[in-house]
Amino acid sequence: MVAEVSINDNAACWTAGPHTAVRPTSLWIGLEGIGGSGKTTQLERLGQALQQRYPDRVVATDNEFGDSPLGAYVSGATGDGRLRLAFSGADTNHVRHLLALAARADKLHRAARRNWHVMLLDAGTAVDVAHALADVPAAASTVRRWLRDAVESLLEPAAEAIGPGVTVFPGCRPEVAAERLAGRLRRRPTDAEVAFLRRLADAYEEVLDGQDRVIRVDAELVPEEVTSRLLTAVKPLLG
Predict the structure, then answer these.
(1) Which domain holds residue 166?
(2) Domain total of the chain
(3) Tell me: the pLDDT tens digits for 135-152?
(4) 83 touches 190 (CB < 8 A)
(5) Contact call for residues 167 and 215 (beta carbons, < 8 A)
């Protein structure tokens, strides 16, 4: 079955392909987006709301890099709220990407072995491709295609292991996200960091364009409204 989930004006639309839709017994929801778009906030709010609405189901959450030793190292090295241009012990892009990719692939495999009905992931299956593309000039179109194919093929076994899921993309202008991040960073983001947010936003649009089962929501709304719209969007998937 090929299906698409979209959200518009607080209304969810479930469009199935030519085959009869079969609702999965479990579903993961991966929150993707640039820093400052509210992914972690919505992970917590949506998790609580889903558990209240579906008390008979196990609603689990997982952080950006997972709870493995490698995930804990990467998370600790990036620090709370720091933009991930680089981090201590991984000052070059290729090391940063390899560590993050390995941690997230391991996170998906570990999540597949846990007992849950709904799994909320802070970063799902698109984040590594988007971050990689954000570091490659747009003019290098051939290299970008090779890189995307390679990263997606590396994540494919982990994605298959965790089963059916949907991507949530909280859309937020990079300038607005930078203002939000200033509070967490306790400083103004640098010009390089804001430029990275712009490249990352463009990369996410490239990665998600044409993908099935993507929920888009305006993340510049107040958090309560964003949560309400996401609940409306995922309801047809959960029954």
Answers:
(1) 3-238
(2) 1
(3) 888 888 999 999 899 999
(4) no
(5) yes
